[in-house]
């Protein structure tokens, strides 16, 4: 057992309240007096006793009155954002100054895919070479747009709130939440990613990415492709107008690496049309009062520059320079990579290239570009809890899972520590420790911790134990050697299941936030994605899909537990971003719907419709964010 495991073994074995100790926490980002509350917190047992029938003295009185119908609902409209958003500071030099930092001699061009040109020999980066890149990939769908669609004003009928939910008397768990407040600079809004929403994979000079194979011909049965997705590449102005109309102040999106650098590699041409596109996207956000949050790569690195490639760090920096010099003056928050801590397969050596690529961009932004915004990396982490908190083996299993999912990338960045010993000591793992100079370069290259805590589950040790599994590369559970489940020891699921892996299990939110706060000790925590995809939502009528009660409950309960984490556990949560702002391509499937808006992909217009959850999501922040 590692020193790390020994040091926090007791933490995992305790109840959620153990996360509440804040005596060693870094200072909060807003005045500590805001953490005080006029509410008096009572022990759960006392609060429950106060609501038992024995304490009630009310008696019913039975009378007749004249009958008449009464109006049960009133019409209420969403409040749009004030616009434009006025930048009070520049987060980096304007492009006219920053452009001197870019490599010289780079070709600015654009491409148009002509599949008949595959035999044309017009140079390393000519139209023939571009056609040959796309030769292995084709799709059975076509793009219905050829140019950016101008936004149209939203009809007032689209902004009518759904019927109010029945709200019972507050339970003991939420007695104090209603007077907790979030600071006025709290980051909240919605998110999406380029591959999943843009469409037009082969349009406007974009090069192929490593995930463009999903749904490519020969089309595997049941696999959707992203050639159409949500047509956001052409409808982005309308999408931004809709977010502004509903009142969401932040929009987190990603830029497509292969739109900017079609060939993906260092010193290859830059697509000028893509630079103009994202320039207008960011300006449109600001015009409508929305602050952009930009991810540089959301799972869509070039086909020829993957995480396992030693050239990845330099190629990623090359691309990032052209993006940041153009847009960094207007963007306050940057994410380098989306969830690079999962999906390794067995190629764990890629962790070194991921860390170095991220660190190179961080240092260049801070030290060369002199950017004053915030920059981080976004982690996947569905917290593992011990299935049996009294069983030390289950606690070790949960912590080992966290080592693989969180520690591998997180410890070097936030703690300056090497890869976890539990990983390095696994037999035949293809990973070597970072050098001291590498650790020094990587440490502290994130201004806060950002992650996607959709849900939580349980971990237990496998038959025969973890050590035997870790020593046996033929074991199906190797190298993590942990069994996961969402079924409690008593046989109950830990929450309402979804169409994928998320569960409505708000009882674990505080442990999710507490773990990353107390173990990694970041300056702040951003919930960069969280969401719920109800089972078979896509099979329902549109009007039924729009009344997405499960999704609303997921968000409301998750957010209320987040408030408790801030006030009762001392965790500096700086923001929350819902996934996704509309139904999208969930990597081969349109059936997995996380969207807070419905998309009609059969009317030729890709018409969007708000779901009830987006109204309730916005309402939460109108209630709890200080004005």
UniProtKB/TrEMBL annotation:
Pfam families: Glyco_hydro_1. Keywords: Hydrolase, Signal. The keyword Signal applies. PROSITE patterns: GLYCOSYL_HYDROL_F1_2. The keyword Signal applies. SUPFAM superfamilies: (Trans)glycosidases. One of its GO terms (molecular function) is beta-glucosidase activity. Residues 1-18 form the signal peptide. GO terms for biological process: carbohydrate metabolic process. It comes from the Eukaryota. Belongs to the glycosyl hydrolase 1 family. This is Glycoside hydrolase family 1 protein. It comes from Acrodontium crateriforme.
């Amino acid at each position: 057992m590692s020193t790390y495991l020994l040091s926090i073994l007791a933490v995992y074995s305790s109840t959620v309240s153990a996360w509440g100790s804040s005596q060693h926490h870094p200072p909060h980002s807003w005045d500590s007096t805001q953490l005080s509350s006029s509410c008096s917190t009572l022990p759960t047992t006392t609060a429950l006793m106060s609501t038992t029938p024995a304490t009630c003295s009310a008696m019913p009185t039975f009378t007749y009155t004249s009958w008449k119908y009464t109006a049960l609902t009133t019409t209420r409209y969403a409040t749009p954002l004030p616009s434009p958003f006025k930048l009070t500071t520049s987060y980096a030099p304007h492009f006219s100054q920053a452009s001197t930092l870019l490599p010289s001699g780079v070709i600015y061009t654009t491409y148009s895919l002509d599949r008949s040109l595959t035999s044309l020999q017009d140079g390393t980066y000519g139209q023939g070479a571009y056609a040959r890149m796309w030769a292995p990939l084709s799709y059975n769908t076509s793009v219905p747009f050829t140019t950016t669609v101008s936004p149209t004003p939203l009809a007032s009928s689209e902004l009518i709130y759904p019927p109010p939910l029945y709200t019972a008397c507050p339970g003991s768990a939420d007695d104090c939440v209603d007077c907790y407040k979030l600071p006025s600079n709290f980051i909240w809004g919605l998110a999406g990613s380029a591959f999943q929403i843009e469409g037009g994979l082969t349009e406007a000079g974009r090069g192929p990415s490593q995930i463009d194979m999903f749904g490519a011909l020969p089309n595997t049965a049941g696999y959707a492709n992203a050639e159409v997705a949500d047509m956001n590449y052409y409808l982005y102005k309308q999408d931004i107008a809709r977010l502004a109309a509903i009142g969401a102040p932040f929009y987190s999106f990603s830029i497509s690496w292969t739109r900017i650098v079609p060939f993906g590699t260092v010193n290859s041409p830059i697509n000028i049309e893509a630079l103009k596109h994202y320039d207008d996207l960011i300006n449109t956000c600001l015009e409508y009062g929305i602050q952009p949050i930009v991810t540089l790569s959301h799972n869509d690195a070039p086909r020829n520059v993957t995480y396992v490639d030693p050239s990845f760090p330099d190629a990623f920096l090359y691309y990032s320079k052209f993006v940041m010099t153009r847009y960094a003056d207007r963007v306050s928050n940057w994410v380098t990579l989306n969830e690079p801590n999962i999906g390794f397969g067995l190629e764990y050596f890629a962790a070194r290239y991921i860390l170095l690529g991220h660190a190179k961009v961080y240092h260049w932004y801070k030290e060369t570009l002199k950017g004053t915004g915030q920059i981080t990396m976004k982690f996947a982490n569905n917290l593992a809890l011990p299935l049996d908190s009294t069983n030390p083996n289950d606690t070790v299993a949960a912590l080992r899972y966290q080592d693989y999912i969180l520690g591998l990338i997180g410890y070097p960045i936030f703690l300056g520590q090497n890869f976890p010993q539990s990983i390095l000591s696994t037999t035949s793992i293809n990973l070597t420790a970072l050098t001291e100079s590498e650790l020094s370069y990587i440490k502290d290259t994130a201004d806060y911790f950002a992650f996607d805590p959709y849900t939580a589950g349980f971990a237990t040790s496998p038959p025969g134990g973890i050590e035997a599994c870790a020593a046996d590369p033929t074991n199906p559970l190797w190298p993590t050697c942990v069994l996961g489940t969402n079924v409690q020891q008593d046989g109950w699921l830990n929450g309402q299941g979804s169409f994928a892996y998320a569960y409505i299990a708000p009882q674990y939110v505080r442990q999710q936030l507490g773990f990353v706060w107390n173990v990694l000790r970041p300056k702040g925590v951003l919930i960069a994605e969280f969401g719920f995809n109800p089972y078979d939502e896509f099979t329902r009528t549109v009007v039924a899909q729009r009344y997405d009660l499960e999704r609303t409950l997921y968000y409301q309960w998750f957010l209320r537990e987040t408030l408790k984490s801030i006030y009762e556990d001392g965790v500096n949560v700086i923001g929350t971003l819902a996934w996704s702002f509309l139904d999208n391509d969930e990597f081969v499937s349109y059936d997995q719907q996380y969207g807070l808006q419905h998309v009609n992909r059969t009317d030729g217009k890709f018409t969007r419709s708000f779901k009830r959850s987006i109204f309730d999501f916005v309402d939460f922040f109108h209630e709890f964010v200080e004005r």
